[in-house]
Amino acid sequence: MRQQILVIEDEAAIADTIVYALETDGFEAVWVATGSEGRELLRKNAIALIILDIGLPDMSGIEFCKEIRQDSSVPIIFLTARNDEIDRVVGLEIGGDDYIAKPFSPRELTARVKAVLRRYQTVPTPSTPLPKPVPTTSSDDTPFLLDETRMSISYFDVPLDLTKCEFRLLQTLIRHPGRVYSRESLKEIAWDEPEFSLDRTVDTHIKTIRGKLRAVRPDRDPIETRRGFGYALRESW
Length: 237
Ligand code: CA
What we know:
There is one protein chain. The protein has helices at residues 12-24, 35-44, 61-68, 83-90, 106-119, 164-175, 183-190, 200-216; strands at residues 4-8, 28-32, 47-53, 76-80, 98-101, 144-147, 152-155, 158-159, 223-226, 230-233. By secondary structure, the chain is α/β, with parallel strands linked by helices. The strands form 3 sheets. The chain has a 5-stranded parallel sheet, with helices on both faces. The chain has a 3-stranded antiparallel sheet with strand order 6-7-8, with helices on one face. A two-stranded antiparallel sheet has the order 9-10. Strand 1, helix 1 (12-24) and strand 2 form a beta-alpha-beta unit. It is elongated and about 50 Å long. It starts with a strand and ends with a strand. The structure holds calcium ion. Calcium ion (CA) binds next to loops.
């Protein structure tokens, strides 16, 4: 059975390109132009992934994402028209899994779709509806359990006692193992007023997080420092 991808995009020309690229790659694409139609389809169909435009006529994609994240963990790839939206989207606290900036190549888009679907190994089918929101991220190859509704993270089954900043930092790393985040982007994600903080405070917080992780498992160090680049969560265990 082909996996169904929901495309929520109000510009028909862009939607056409996306639908064509997805169908060519073996997916079944369903296109709607508004958030409310998207909501409706999400209720009725077994959607494997959503491609979500940020600028929709009836609501913003960000609002839509926040709303459906109350009871759905279906993977979401944002479409952004402007580069300055990317920072907000990358601040993954709103619950997106990836983003792609317009204009994009169809091949790039389907590659992202496949990569995100690979991360979510379970494929929803009509008999097993959408995965439940808790936990958002958990699999056999990670010792972390991220519960975004309770804003808590467990490590080897031990709940971590984290500050808001530490939670946001670790949450970001956990959601995309292997992805390297610069200190600058982590600061944007974790701080309410990043312009008032210094880069080295990211290092300080990472150090504290590492200490808390070490207290659980002294033999492991899941956060990698990429010299000159930033930080990433190890991909393999
Ligand atoms: Ca739009």
